[in-house]
Amino acid sequence: MTRFSTLLTRGAAAILLGSMLVLTGCHRGSAKDEVRTADMRSQFDAVIQAYKSGQFIVDGAVLSALDTGSHFAYLKDQGKLPKTVLLEPSDDSKVRKQHLQYMARLQIDYGFTVYYDDGGVLKKISVVDTKARDLEDYKAPVKADTPPPQQHM
After folding, report:
1. Confidence of residue 37 (pLDDT cuts 50, 70, 90)
2. Does the structure show a pLDDT above 90 at 121?
3. Which of 12, 92, 145, 152 is 20 to 30 A removed from 40 (C-alpha atoms)?
4. Is residue 101 assigned to a domain?
5. Tens digits of per-residue pLDDT, 57-81?
6. Closest CA to 65 of 147, 138, 143
7. 8 Å CB contact between 143 and 116
8. Looking at the domain assignment, is residue 135 inside a domain?
9. Residue 12 region by backbone torsions, left for phi larger than 0, else alpha for psi between -120 and 50, else beta
10. Which of 43-47, 101-105, 116-120 is the least confident region?
11. HEC string of 51-95?
């Protein structure tokens, strides 16, 4: 029976423990296509904010999904199409499923990569997992000038 020296056994145990700590530190429970950082805005070519009713805030202007698509078509014609786009919540609205579906459509049409802010974690929009929605123009709710007629009996 071969006996290992105590120093060799302790050294192997220390190396094993150290490698386990390194591997544990690298993983940290993060999944692929996620980035945990708050100051990543400067890393993106374009930043868009989600707004009410499926609209977006692009360069300070509120645009419908259709107008946002037209904006990217213009950028493509000018040769200034961004490679990465960040979709973040605005003061008035959070990022909703409708926003993700519109951005998936734009991602398919123009070939850029879209990330969105999900509670402080940046996630990549997967066109496979997210159903792409056709771009629509904003339709404001109809407001009646006069109240509807009342029927008296």
Report:
1. very low
2. no
3. 92
4. yes
5. 999 999 998 999 999 999 999 999 9
6. 138
7. no
8. no
9. alpha
10. 116-120
11. CHHHCEEECCEEECHHHHHHHHHHHHHCCCCCCEEEEEECCCCCC
38 has a pLDDT exceeding 60: no
* CB-based contact 117:33 (threshold 8 Å): no
Percent of the chain, pLDDT > 70? 76
Range of the domain at 40: 34-124
Alpha carbons 149 and 41: distance in angstroms, whole number: 53
Sheet containing strand 84-89, strands side by side: 34-36, 121-124, 113-118, 84-89, 46-50, 56-58, 61-63
Residue 107 located in a structural domain: yes
pLDDT of 41 higher than 80? no
| Number of domains composing the chain | 1
